Each structure stands twice: as C-alpha cells, then as structure tokens.
Amino acid sequence: MPKPLLFSFLFLSLSLLSHATILTLSQQFKEAPQFYNSPDCPSITDTNTNNKNNKNNNNNVICYDGAVHVAMTLDTQYIRGSMAAILSVLQHSSCPENNIFHFVTTATANASLLRATLSTSFPYLKFQIYPFDDTHVSGLISTSIRSALDCPLNYARSYLPNVLPSCVRRVVYLDSDLVLVDDIAKLAATPLGGDDTVLAAPEYCNANFTSYFTLTFWSNPSLSLTFANRKPCYFNTGVMVIDLDRWRAGDYTKKIEEWMELQKRMRIYQLGSLPPFLLVFAGKIAPVDHKWNQHGLGGDNFRGLCRDLHPGPVSLLHWSGKGKPWARLDANRPCPLDALWAPYDLLQTPFALDS
Which stretch is the leader sequence (predicted)? Predict the structure, then answer.
C-alpha cells in the first residue's frame, strides 16, 4: 500500500476507534450481582416448536411458557434509569431467572452498543432488543406541555403488540424512571377479568379527570359521549399489565391512532401519549393496588418539585414528572426520596474503587 494511502488508512482507523471509544465510555456501568431462582421456582420451557429458533444474543429463547415478560423502552438518554429499573426487578424477584426483558429502541439507535451495555452489566439477562420505526407515529404527535413527552419512543407502548413476537401473550410494561421493591411476578399475575379487558393498572379516581382534556373536547357532545356508560379514572401508563392477545384481536393500536389523528385536527388534550390511552381504556381496565405505582415522585411537568409518598404500602416507586433522581443527584440537589433510587444506580463513577 502506498505510504499516503497507508497514513490515511491509519488516521481513519484511529478516528473511528476514538469515536467508538467515546460512544462506549460516555456512560459505563458496573456489573450487577447475579440473581438465582429459589428452589420452588417453576421451570420455564418453550413448548412452541415454531419458536425454537427465536433467540436473543445470549442464546436464550424468548418465548418461554410461564415466564414473566417485561417490556421497556431503551435509549441513551434514559439508559441509566433503565439499568436501575432492571436491577430492582431482578433483586426483588423470587424467580429472577424466569424474567424475560423486551427492550424497544428507535430504529436509528446503536443497538449493538445498547446490547453490549446490557450484557456487560447483566451477563445472564434474558432479553431481546426490537427496533421501533417511529416514522409513522412522528406524524401523529402533537406538541404537548413538556418537550420530553413528544419523543416518538414515548409512544412505543402503543405499538408493543405489533413490535413484540406473537408468542409473547402478556407483558408488564415499565417506564425507565422507576424501581421495584417487591416481586414483579405478583404484578404480572394480576387477573384481567372478562374477555374484553385488555390491561390492568392502578386507578386514581380522586384525580380531576376532566383536566386531561380541553374545553373543545368537553363542549363537543359527540366527543364527550366517549365516556358514556363508563366510570373513567386517571391511570398512569408507566406501569401496566397488558394482554397482548386481546390487544391484537381488538386492534387497539388503531383506536389510539384515530384519537391522535383527531388531536392533529382539533386540539382535544395537552399531555403527550397519556390522553389517547385514557380515551380508549379509562373505565375499562382491571384495577391494581396503588402500591404498584407510587408515581409523581419527579414532581409536576413544569418545575419538578420534591414530593412525598402517597399513604399506604409501597411496591414500586416511580419518578414520573420532570425531575429524575439521577439528574438531581448529579446536580447535588436531590429530593429526600431520591435516596431510595440511589442504591440501584449502576453508573461507574470515575472515583469508584475496585473491590
């Protein structure tokens, strides 16, 4: 190879290596402890021969019968929260080896980097990463009261039944800004009741439900009648148990999209991806104990002020709202409850000493 070309090749290689190093080292995470099943845990086996070749990077089939399937979105902005959430799920599971994670990312995300990051911290984690083509939903998103709510990946939960394999029939959806302090299998086992009940979530019927929609919505008889013969209550979409088979059969993604299309023509709500869920499901969901979503710990969507826990027991702490615990801890301005998130933080700090 001529010297000029050789030097050019070496320079390009070093530049790419430097760029890859920056991508890899921008956030490094510690390896989490390995968690094992208790002796009385059921064995999860794949009895569907059509799924024998459907494997993730750890050569574990993803269509286990009897497993607890957990779905989350995954991106570089919130990956620190995601890592903490994963650790909390595993740490408090009686059967951690029976948990299978399904991570949805944008189609443009560096899936190899995300996969490597997960595998480094959780070498034995059963998981799969799915690209989400957000080009369609991008055209349906209307500006909301906080720009972070307008991220297309924030709407991926509406497309889970289309993105995940058909062999995954029930899933627990979790946001990235939460930690569990109880066994997720209890939440996953929530009974959904009748054949037409698609999801379960904690309901909050003391909230002012009318505030989630505009005067344009309530003053239009054909729209306000949407909730006729229903007792609609607010529920937070960051923690849901979803029957994917029933969702697929009812084509609920299309129902959500229809409300988003209407929102583009006449503004009927202000708050991102939540109102379409309320329009389709409020008053039709299976209830879950409030301990499974102690939400709002991130404060409101404007100031992100500190908040206290709701009265009662706690199985899941959720920093929904503007303030995130890792950001407040880094800024040395934590809220008191952020101390409950900190033990699950796997971020490798520059000053950490090897044990």
Answer: 1-20
